[in-house]
Automatic annotation (TrEMBL), chain A:
Record flagged with keyword Transmembrane helix: yes
Residue ranges with Low complexity bias: 129-154
Name of the featured protein: Zf-HC2 domain-containing protein
InterPro entries listed in its UniProt record: Anti_sigma_zinc_sf, Znf_put
Species this protein is from: Eiseniibacteriota bacterium
Residue stretches making up the Putative zinc-finger domain: 3-37
Segments crossing the lipid bilayer: 86-109
One Pfam family in the UniProt entry: zf-HC2
Keywords: Membrane, Transmembrane, Transmembrane helix
Top-level taxonomic group: Bacteria
Keyword Transmembrane tagged: yes
Region (Disordered): 128-154
Length: 203, 187
């Protein structure tokens, strides 16, 4: 081995990572070679100096500053008040109830396939009554459909579905523009067309 | 660290107290800038706190901590190099020349010439001029005293690369400081 190889061992010798044989050889070489001995002394001196550099200690309050910055950087969920306002869950629950109620009403109310007879009796005569109504004598007291409607109204009206919710009923009210006059209302004309499930009401 | 990861603030404070000196020293030796090091060391612990749930319990906390510190220090060095030639060789040469002149002043006694403080200051400057990838290995090994295996984990490089980098860094440091050391050794 020569000086070049000896210098390659300097680092491992400093770190105490040489084998026994390598260490003995290097130490023998140091005894014989003043240049390598001095070279290693400088090497060791540099590393001693590096290791002996004064340690920089943090200033007072370092930990507190770190904690403050850490809290700002990532607030812990269990230490920061909830960002959602208190009324939000209540409002959400009310909205959910309203939605459920809206969806449930059609199921609770009479279904589409329920008979619409009460509706028909309100203003529409039965199909077989139409000819009679059409041929009935005109007159305020004998208005077509009036006796039937007045007689059945108390019981039939109770069975009338609320049209606000039951839109399945295909009853259509066509309201003709009627000039309002002072005095008694005019009797509806018996000649008005009446069709099934459609009533034309004149005031 | 396990307690800190579960949002135990007292445990986190204890971690900061325990490691703040080592982190600060590592960064300040790598940057050779005491003022900036304090802020960067704080940032290291903030990163630890923010990413505390990413810490793998099987690994050593110090390794994870030094990895964060080394990465932040590297970023800071690169940022400074981009801005200006902060660690220029010319600046070091001038600095060492000044130190050498002061140390070699024949009007004063040898003991006062070689005041340890001045030599340490020169050493700090010399370390700061070693290229970044060698400097980090050098500081972790010869100042912080980490074993080679841990340095390899911190820097994410093989153990053999760590050894060769440290050897090269030591040689660079020795060359830079040789004039001072020779003067010191001269009777």
């Amino acid at each position: 081995m020569n000086c070049r190889e000896a210098r390659r061992y300097f680092g491992a010798y400093w770190d105490d990572e040489l084998t026994q044989a390598e260490r003995e050889w290097l130490e023998g070489h140091f005894a014989a070679c003043a240049d390598c001995r001095r070279g290693y002394d400088e090497h060791a001196r540099v590393l001693e100096l590096a290791a002996s550099l004064p340690r920089h200690e943090p200033e007072t309050g370092f930990t507190e500053r770190v904690l403050a910055r850490a809290r700002r950087a990532a607030p812990a969920p269990d230490r920061v008040p909830s960002a959602s306002p208190a009324w939000l869950p209540v409002t959400a629950a009310a909205a959910a109830l309203l939605l459920v109620g809206t969806l449930a009403v059609p199921w609770l109310l009479p279904r589409r396939d329920m008979p619409r007879a009460p509706v028909a009796t309100l203003a529409t005569p039965a199909p077989d009554a139409v000819p009679q109504a059409a041929s009935a004598p005109s007159g305020p007291a004998d208005a077509p459909g009036a006796p039937a409607a007045s007689g059945a109204a108390p019981t039939d009206l109770a069975a009338v579905p609320d049209s606000l919710f039951d839109h399945s009923a295909s009853v259509e009210f066509i309201l003709d523009p009627v000039p309002l006059r002072r005095g008694r209302p005019q009797a509806p004309s018996p000649a008005l067309p009446v069709q099934a499930e459609r009533a034309v009401i004149s005031f | 660290m396990a307690r800190a990861a579960e949002d135990d603030e007292r445990a986190f404070s204890e971690l900061v107290r325990r490691y703040q000196g080592r982190v600060l020293n590592l960064i300040s030796r790598v940057l050779n800038d005491r003022e900036a090091s304090d802020d960067l060391a704080q940032e290291v612990f903030v990163r630890v706190f923010v990413h505390r749930r990413n810490y793998r319990r099987g690994s050593r906390f110090s390794t994870w901590l030094f990895t964060i510190a080394a990465n932040l220090a590297k970023n800071e060095i690169r940022r400074r190099v981009r801005r200006r030639n902060w660690f220029s060789l010319d600046a070091l040469t001038e600095a060492l020349k000044d130190s050498a002149i002061q140390l070699a002043d024949p009007a004063e006694g040898r003991e006062s010439l070689m005041e340890r403080e001045q030599l340490q200051e020169a050493m700090g400057r010399a370390i700061a001029t070693v290229p970044e990838k060698y400097r980090l290995s050098l500081v972790l090994r010869d100042i912080e005293g980490l074993p080679y295996e841990e340095i390899a984990q911190v820097l994410g490089i093989p153990g053999g690369t760590v050894r060769s980098r440290i050897n090269r860094a030591r040689s660079m440091l020795k060359r830079k400081l040789q004039p001072l050391l020779r003067r010191e050794g001269t009777p």
